[in-house]
Amino acid sequence: MPRGRYSLHDPHDHTPLADEHFQCAVGPSGWRYVSQLTTPSGDHHGSVDLTLDELGRPIRLELHAAAWQVRGAALDGVTWVRTDPTGTDATEGNVRAHAFTGTSPAFLVATARLLRLTPSSAATRVRLVAFTDPVLAPRTVDQSWALLKREAHATDSGPLAVDEYQVTALDTGEQHAVHIAGDVVLAAPGIELEDLESPPSVFT
Fold this sequence. Notes:
Blueprint: E1 3-9, E2 16-27, E3 30-38, E4 44-53, E5 58-65, E6 68-74, E7 78-83, E8 90-95, E9 99-101, H1 105-115, E10 124-132, E11 137-153, E12 160-169, E13 175-181, E14 184-188, E15 191-196
Parallel strand pairs: 9-10
Antiparallel strand pairs: 1-2, 1-15, 2-3, 3-4, 4-5, 5-6, 6-7, 7-8, 10-11, 11-12, 12-13, 13-14, 14-15
């Protein structure tokens, strides 16, 4: 069960945004990721709870940020309910999309798990609903994912397979690299893995 800490920063000017303290685990029915976020000053900033089924589809999502809350799942595409800080105004949304995304590294692992690309695969288009900080506003985005290479790196606990993806935002053409080992993001724009207490889990 990997457990550790990511630091999140603005990918453009590198302003520190939050630390994400996480743990995740592969189970017989899929994968679960939970985390707590703190500001650079140490204040509570939000939380992430994401569960995928064995095919990589989001069967349960719960996000908290700035007293806003989102609960969602894969249902007729993806469906979610977003609640304001007062708890009195809940808005439901539904989009013919494949999954969710956001600032948490969990969503990168989830998208990679959903697509299950190989280095010989063609680039694959995916439609996602992104929940943007600080109020978890939903936005539909189209991306293209390609697995450029898979390399084995020697570690104290044996070889570690690292996948390098090229992710393209189809609305702007902007491209960036994402490096994932098992269910842990090693590097991506705005994300640094600062601490990892145990090796990444291996998806079968």
